Input
Amino acid sequence: MNKPVQAIDTNSVMFITKRPEVIMVEGKGSWITDNNGKRYLDFLQGWAVNCLGHSNPGMIAALNTQAKKLINPSPAFYNEPMIGLSNLLTANSCFDKVFFANSGAEANEGAIKLARKWGQLNKNGAFEIITFDHSFHGRTLATMSASGKPGWDTMFAPQVAGFPKADLNDLDSVKKLVTDKTVAVMVEPVQGEGGVIPTTQEFMRELRKFTKENNILLIADEVQAGCGRTGTLFAYEHYGIEPDIMTLGKGIGGGVPLAALMATNAVACFVPGDQGGTYNGNALMTAVGISVIEQLLAPGFLASVKAKGQLLQSELLKLSAEFNLEGERGEGLLRALMLGKDTGGKLVELARERNPEGLLINSPRPNLLRFMPALNVSDDEIRQMANMLRELLKQTV
Ligand SMILES: *Cc1c(COP(=O)(O)O)cnc(C)c1O
Output
């Protein structure tokens, strides 16, 4: 049984969000344990970050081996894992060049700068990047400005200019925003924070065709949807298209701070002085990235993500039918259950507080729940999650 709850003093931690009064102390696979010894089935995984679950042995080995050898020779030098991971990513994508960053927002900042630079060189200084309503690209000033989150345009005014917003899956709304200042369109193949909204096949294909015909770059923000999350190594593969620029984050590091900006040769136009950063491409994080990507590329792994995605989908559809909810949506192991009413926040709390074992899920919009388990979650854990949720839905519906 659980030990008595320990009091914790959190006064020195800057307040940025309401957190439950527990401390997370260790994790293994799909489970995480708090300071009271309570276990939680983790379908958050550090916000879709721990793609191989907690304490992945391959990642631990990569960290240990590289830490003993070389952590950071500075970005002024090449290091072995930096080159190794660049090669691995370019060999398995349509891109030719990689720049490593430490967070998704930083990778997206790089993508924005690269597109603007390309516009200076090739399109008379065109700089506008069309983004989408309800999109999420990060929390720096430029990426907040690029994001379509309601309220973010005035939060830290003035915004960074040059990010007109179109409607997802509506090519006409993109066309209406195009001017001679337009340099790129930036899109999440599946809007994650916006509530797990996949772009349609038709939209992505037509958007690629339209941008190509009009000398406009296509930037895929795959910080959440990339790295196996949707059942293919990269989400753009679902559409049979090739973007000009792609950003990766979250899953690429499996839990450590690592992100990437990728571009084709035609677009990779930075010159010395344009881009950099103290930690970028450091050996310790890129060594972990190699372990992560190699595990995603192991024979059968991505096929198993697809199969687990289908199992999660069918479990969610069962719940939807049983409780008269509004279905589910998503791609691979990035899915949402549509509740039909604003009970998401309450369910997230009840799930965490349930005993003896808690369940970690989240609710990016009040009328839905989002699921982003480890990509190696077991079938049994998916069913356990659904059963826990079934119990909670009985209480709340
Ligand atoms: C999480 C996320 C980001 C921001 O990544 P950080 O590592 O939090 O800076 C950017 N784009 C998308 C699509 C994301 O889901």
Notes: The pocket of pyridoxal-5'-phosphate is lined by residues 103-105, 108, 136-138, 188, 192-193, 221, 223-224, 249-250 (CB under 6 Å).
